[in-house]
Amino acid sequence: MKPGTATVTVTYPDGKTEKLTVTVKAARGDVNFDGDVNAEDAAIILVYAAEAGAGETAVLYSADDADAESEAKQSADIDGNGVIDAVDAANLLIYAAILVAEGTADWADVLRQD
After folding, report:
1. Which positions ≥6 away from 90 have C-beta within 8 Å?
2. Which domains are seen in the chain, by residue range?
3. What's the rounded Cα separation, in Å, for the pair 33 and 45?
4. What is the greatest pairwise CA distance in the chain?
5. Using an 8 Å Cβ cutoff, are 45 and 77 in contact?
6. Which of 19, 52, 62, 103 would be 58's cystine partner, CB 3.0–4.6 Å?
7. Which of 108, 86, 83 is nearest to 95 (CA)?
8. Which pTM value belongs to this model?
């Protein structure tokens, strides 16, 4: 799901209505906003890291949508250190492998430093 903000109108049983603003943030690791965290997201992170490392203009999601690009960057920085690199892609792949093997995965387990 692509992140963003939407206004929703809620109608209560008594007929009163209220408008609520809902903000959807990108899930950690779901860089392409397709609802899955998988190897495709890791590949996008690796390409981004290689382009940035080579001094090229690197884009994760869209050069034309600054908000979505910002969300993608937050989603791609798996370890939260402010740098999007191969370590983030590796952690994402570990998470995705656990998710496939066990049906559930926890970022805290993947990022735990033993």
Report:
1. 42
2. 28-111 (1.10.1330.10)
3. 13
4. 61
5. no
6. 52
7. 108
8. 0.81
Tell me the C-alpha distance between 88 and 45, whole Å. 7
Residue with the two structure tokens 């952690």: 91
84 close to 48: Cβ distance less than 8 angstroms: yes
Tokens of 41: 């997201």
Nearest alpha-carbon partner for 23 in 58, 59, 62, 74 = 74
Give the tens place of pLDDT for each residue, 75-99.
999 999 999 999 999 999 999 999 9
**Alpha carbons 53 and 47: distance in angstroms, whole number:** 10
HSE, CB side, 13 Å, CA atoms: give it for residue 9: 4
Contact in structure between 111 and 91 (CB atoms under 8 Å): yes
- Among residues 58, 44, 47, 60, the alpha carbon closest in space to that of 3 is found at 60
Distance between alpha carbon 80 and the CA centroid of its chain, in Å?
A: 12
